[in-house]
Amino acid sequence: MTNQDLLNAAANAAKYSYSKYSGFSVGAALLCKDGTVFTGCNIENSSFSLTNCAERTAIFKAVSEGYTEFKAIAIVGGAEGDLSRPCCPCGACLQVMSEFCDGDLSVILTNGEFSLDDFLPMRFELE
Ligand code: THU
User: Fold this and answer.
1) What residues make up the domain containing 22?
2) CATH number of domain containing 25
3) What is the pLDDT of residues 78-92, one digit of tens each?
4) How far is C-alpha 20 from the chain's CA centre?
5) By the 8 A CB rule, do 43 and 53 touch?
6) Alpha helix segments (H runs only) across the chain
7) What is the pTM of this model?
8) Share of the chain above pLDDT 90, in %
């Protein structure tokens, strides 16, 4: 599974984006340590704050099926279906990633590969 394969899977997931309020579609593809891939899209709601981001959709799908060990997540997104520009994960999604992943989780965007630590060098922890 190359980075481009994962970006392609994210772009495919973005096709299912339910984003009638923002017009901004996002897709994510989460690569588990065993090679399984879970995808997700953003799902908006007329009560705006109930919107779920693509990254969290993919992570929650994986965790709800017993997968909690992840290697990489690819993210694409953009307005009016244009997925060419890099789409960075939001703070809420970074915190959810940090619950399950070490800082070396690979975060793959259209402009290159980063780590979770690049985006979130410190994170909230209960301890
Ligand atoms: N969105 C995501 O899916 N992931 C992010 O990391 C940030 C934003 C979605 C939420 C909303 O449906 C749309 O992008 C515009 O904010």
Assistant:
1) 3-118
2) 3.40.140.10
3) 999 899 999 999 999
4) 19
5) no
6) 3-14, 54-64, 91-100, 116-119
7) 0.97
8) 98
